[in-house]
């Protein structure tokens, strides 16, 4: 005789009697008791830590990111520039330029006065600019054959003593521009270092708007989701306390170590702290609210929420902290600062969330959820229950998993041509920014690459006597794709002490190569990479084989930086995957489940960056992505994805200890999905608000993180992960087994 076993409803309510204690470890049960009996002490402890952090160590000092932080150690381009300074008196490349332009033509008087004033500065006759070297180049010389203008633009390159701070040099470049004055058709200063300073100023002026908007957003989302007034206030208060502590801890580290924090850290830290603390708070608050709504006493509801969520929150926070700390393995100073900075931010948010939120839950109880506690969320409708059970049938789950993977693969197709990486300096600024305006004016008069030509340095005994071969090489270089102009042996046939094509003491010659695109962005970097590959055959063709070659300038630095980023990307992501695997293995006590969960995370990561590349290159017609985005934010997205994996699969595993796996998925996934939807939406929109800062790197951050978290929340964790759990079945839990011995693959019938 076959007796059908009744199914348990997805939204099963508690029967009368005490709340069933969840299965948990000794630590979780002990901490639940601590929260119940010592909640005031936990709140005082967090308050004291916040006061001590505010009162004693300094806060992190925001400052513009320096070139040293943005570049690999000992870049070859810097060595070439030092050699060029020693051999010729000054390198070709400089990150400082002043632009004059009149589209109707610069008069002879203006051109003469401009060159005269540059000579006065060179001779030290301008006291406030003593030590500065000014080299003006007019487009009347025809050095860019493709330029449609003639006699409309002068770009003056400014060279400063070797150890001049970038802030001082930018200020002096501004003084030179004012020295020329509007009567000489001065447009403004431009270059890599002025662009960095401008980006920092824009960040500092808008960061408080971002913070305020994010706080209001979280108040709105959490308030609506929980139908409460005090719960969202507690969430924002916890994030604020955690952010205060983290900023002063980072400030102490900055003051007592060699660690320096890039300015990009501040905006990302705000969004990350508010997002992760909201995640962890929502987990605690949702569980407690459900128990209180069912009539459980405050003490038992808080203990229940603490016991269930603390292991999940602690493991999730550790995954994110250790995951982003893997950035320390990157080859660039930016990553070695960004990694520990983000790790400390997340770790502080974790500790404050675990201490303060359960403590305040115990002290305030149902008052936290006023006025909507009695209403509660509506019961799961019958059709939703049926859909939930239908989705947990293996054939349906297999179709769902295949459909999601197909959608992710389609989104990832944007990576078919690789990641277009650049430095996003001048092009990262708003189009009306003075530095961007000056760069655009220089590009119209010459070509975009004129603001920072690439230096090609050739060294060989007697090379200065082979001028015919060098002139033919210059012609060949001009014919290379995307080379707008070349200045070299053909243009300056005589030796000069300063700025010449030949070293006065012989043995070296050089060219200034101007590309037809912004010198620090992805297109120019790729053009230079192709030129570097073609150069050896060109040298042999013109009898210059065996010549030592060096590349200097911002584009050459960009090539080295992108190469270092590519090396860092695979190294850091490999370590981040390993860290995530270990934590998932320890938490889930399963070998197979972490593997398919990480495959899902990798697919979501590829889809995110495929969409990001497509949006910024094809839709917005931008030049590419900031070089540090793929490394830094891949690790963040991967770790945050594991955060949600732990919450979803952790809930399913607990249910599977009491019922068949298929039923466990149908019961636990929708319940966990509600909390993840609120948390993921808050986290995604927190990062999306970084777009308030009007520079391209933050727009890319906002899109990549926002879209990545939304993909993770609504597609991967809500659909793909439950489907994979069902498809893998009980084998996915190996070597873990259900205590009751019930398998997900058993039929829901038993013989009597």
Rounded to the nearest angstrom, the distance between the terminal CA atoms is 6 Å
Helix share bin: 55-70%
Number of helices: 20
> Structural class, from helix and strand content?
alpha+beta
Oligomer: single chain
CATH topology of one domain: the name is: Multidrug efflux transporter AcrB transmembrane fold
Strand percentage lies at 5-15%
Strand order, sheet with most strands = 3-4-2-5
CATH architecture assignment of one domain: Up-down Bundle
- Uncertain runs: 1-18, 495-499, 741-752
Roughly what is the average pLDDT, rounded to an integer?
Answer: 85
Q: Major sheet, described briefly?
A: 4 strands, antiparallel
CATH class of one domain: Mainly Alpha
- Globular, elongated, flat, extended or rod-shaped: what is the shape? elongated
Instruction: Give the full name of the CATH homologous superfamily of one domain.
Output: Multidrug efflux transporter AcrB transmembrane domain
Radius of gyration: 31 Å
How many DSSP E strands? 12
What does this protein structure show overall?
The chain has helices at about 25-55, 65-70, 75-90, 110-120, 165-180, 190-225, 230-255, 265-295, 300-325, 335-365, 380-390, 395-410, 435-445, 465-480, 520-540, 555-590, 590-620, 630-655, 660-690, 695-730, and strands at about 1-5, 95-100, 135-140, 155-160, 185-190, 420, 455-460, 485, 510-515, 550, 625, 750. It is α+β, with helices and mostly antiparallel strands and about 750 residues long. The chain has a 4-stranded antiparallel β-sheet, sandwiched between helices. About 60% of the residues lie in helices and about 10% in strands. Among the domains are: about 1-55 and about 225-380, Up-down Bundle (Multidrug efflux transporter AcrB transmembrane fold); about 95-195, 2-Layer Sandwich (Alpha-Beta Plaits). It is built from 20 helices and 12 strands. Mean pLDDT is about 85; it is low at about 1-20, about 495-500 and about 740-750.
């Amino acid at each position: 005789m076959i007796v059908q076993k009744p199914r348990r409803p997805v939204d099963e309510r508690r029967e009368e009697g005490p709340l069933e204690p969840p299965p948990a470890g000794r630590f979780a049960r002990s901490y639940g008791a601590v929260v119940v009996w010592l909640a005031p002490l936990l709140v005082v402890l967090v308050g004291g830590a916040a006061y001590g952090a505010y009162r004693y160590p300094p806060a992190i000092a925001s400052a513009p990111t320096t070139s040293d932080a943005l570049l690999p150690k000992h870049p070859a381009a810097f060595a070439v520039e030092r050699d060029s300074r020693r051999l010729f008196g000054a390198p070709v490349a400089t990150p400082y330029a002043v632009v004059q332009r009149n589209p109707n033509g610069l008069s002879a008087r203006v051109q003469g006065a401009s060159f005269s004033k540059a000579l006065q500065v060179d001779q030290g006759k301008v006291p406030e600019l003593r030590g500065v070297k000014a080299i003006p180049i007019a487009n009347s010389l025809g050095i860019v054959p493709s330029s449609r203008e003639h006699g409309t633009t002068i770009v003056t390159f400014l060279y400063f003593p070797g150890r001049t701070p970038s802030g001082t040099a930018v200020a002096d470049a501004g003084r030179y521009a004012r020295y020329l004055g509007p009567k000489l058709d001065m447009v403004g200063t431009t270059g890599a270092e002025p662009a960095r300073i401008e980006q920092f100023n824009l960040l500092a002026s808008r960061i408080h708007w971002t913070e305020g908007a994010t706080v209001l957003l979280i108040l709105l989302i959490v308030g609506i989701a929980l139908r409460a007034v005090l719960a969202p206030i507690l969430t924002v208060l916890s994030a604020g306390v955690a952010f205060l502590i983290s900023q002063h801890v980072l400030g102490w580290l900055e003051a007592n170590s060699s660690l320096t924090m890039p300015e990009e850290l501040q905006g990302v830290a705000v969004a990350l702290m508010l997002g992760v603390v909201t995640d962890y708070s929502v987990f605690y608050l949702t569980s407690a609210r459900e128990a209180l709504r069912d009539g459980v006493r405050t003490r038992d509801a808080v203990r229940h929420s603490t016991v269930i969520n603390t292991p999940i929150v602690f493991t999730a926070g550790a995954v994110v902290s250790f995951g982003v700390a893997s950035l320390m393995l990157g080859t660039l100073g930016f990553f070695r600062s960004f990694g520990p900075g983000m790790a400390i931010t997340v770790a502080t948010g974790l500790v404050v969330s675990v201490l303060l939120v359960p403590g305040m839950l115990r002290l305030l109880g149902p008052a936290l959820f006023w006025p909507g506690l009695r209403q509660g969320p509506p019961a799961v409708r019958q059709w939703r229950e049926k859909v939930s059970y239908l989705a947990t049938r293996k054939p349906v789950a297999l179709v769902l998993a295949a459909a999601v993977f197909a959608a992710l693969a389609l989104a990832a197709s944007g990576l078919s041509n690789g990641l277009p990486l650049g430095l996003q300096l001048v092009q990262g600024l708003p189009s009306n920014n003075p530095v961007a305006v000056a760069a655009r004016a220089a590009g119209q008069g010459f070509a975009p690459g004129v603001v920072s030509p690439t230096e090609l340095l050739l060294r060989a005994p007697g090379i200065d006597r082979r001028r015919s071969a060098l002139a033919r090489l210059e012609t060949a270089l001009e014919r290379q794709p995307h080379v707008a102009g070349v200045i070299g042996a053909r243009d300056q046939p005589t030796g000069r002490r300063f700025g010449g094509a030949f070293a006065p003491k012989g043995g070296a010659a050089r060219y200034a190569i101007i590309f037809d695109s912004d010198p620090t962005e992805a297109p120019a970097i790729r053009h230079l990479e192709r030129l570097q590959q073609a150069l050896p055959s060109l040298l042999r063709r013109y009898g210059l084989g065996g010549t030592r070659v060096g590349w200097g300038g911002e584009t050459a630095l960009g090539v080295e930086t992108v190469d270092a980023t590519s090396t860092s990307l695979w190294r850091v992501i490999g370590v981040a995957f390993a860290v995530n695997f270990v934590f998932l293995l320890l938490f889930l006590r399963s070998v197979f489940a972490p593997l398919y969960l990480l495959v899902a995370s990798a697919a979501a990561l590829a889809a995110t960056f495929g969409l990001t590349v497509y949006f910024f290159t094809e839709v917005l017609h931008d030049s590419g992505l900031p070089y540090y985005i793929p490394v830094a934010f891949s690790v963040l997205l991967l770790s945050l994805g594991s955060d949600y994996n732990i919450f979803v699969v952790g809930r399913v595993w607990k249910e599977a200890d009491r019922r068949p796996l298929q039923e466990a998925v149908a019961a636990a996934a929708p319940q966990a999905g509600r909390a993840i939807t609120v948390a993921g939406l808050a986290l995604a929109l927190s990062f999306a608000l970084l777009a308030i800062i009007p520079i391209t790197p933050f727009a890319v951050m906002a899109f990549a993180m926002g879209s990545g978290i939304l993909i993770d929340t609504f597609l991967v964790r809500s659909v793909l992960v439950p489907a994979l759990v069902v498809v893998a079945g009980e084998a996915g839990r190996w070597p873990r087994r259900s205590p009751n011995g019930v398998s997900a693959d058993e039929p829901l019938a038993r013989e009597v």
